Amino acid sequence: MIDKPILYNYFRSSTSVRVRIALNLKDIDYEYVALHLRKEEHRDPVYLKINPYGLLPTLEFPSGIILNQSLAILEYLDEIYPTPSILPVNAIDRAKVRSMAYAIALEIHPLNNLHVLNYLKNDLKVDEQGIKIWFSRWVHKAFTPFENILVNDKDVGLYCFGNTPTIIDICLFSQVVNNARFEVDMSKYPKINSVYKNCLSHEAFSRALPKNQPDAE
Questions:
Q1: CA 127 – CA 138 distance, rounded (Å)
Q2: Alpha helices of 81-125 — where are they, by DSSP H?
Q3: Is the pTM of this model over 0.85?
């Protein structure tokens, strides 16, 4: 068994929520280190030596292993802590689950990341309502086909793939949590909302919510 990891994260960061969920699901004890994004604590030279990109989250092990990028962290954790698994055993099922997770993590999150929103606000002088419109546009563009898949896919159960959480649910849950801050209209997504509610009733997900973190404001 490897050493207890340190999670550098921010309570509100959706990518940090992803990793917290995975750590909770796998019952991995970890040290919580908070870096406040809006105070630019992630730009501190000490942290930049740990993660030169200056992004969150980062997972660091006393053994010297340092991981960044939340999806890579999730898959690494699944390899070294295989129970409970957050990826199916079958190769084609794994590819399917990954593709659905990526539809959220790669099609929505990069356009809704804080540094993009800050650029809109500070450099392009977009007002708060304009930023909400920007945020919602990219959510809806991905959530509309995602909802259709959930409605028609025979593999959908309590969660996006079957009756146990996978990386799809981790990414979806984190995005829905983030959507609330920007008043995204979720009324057109009953299946997404159903999966979200099932996740919310799972302790590993609820414990990872921003409001339940030590640095929550």
A1: 17
A2: 91-105, 109-112, 114-118
A3: yes
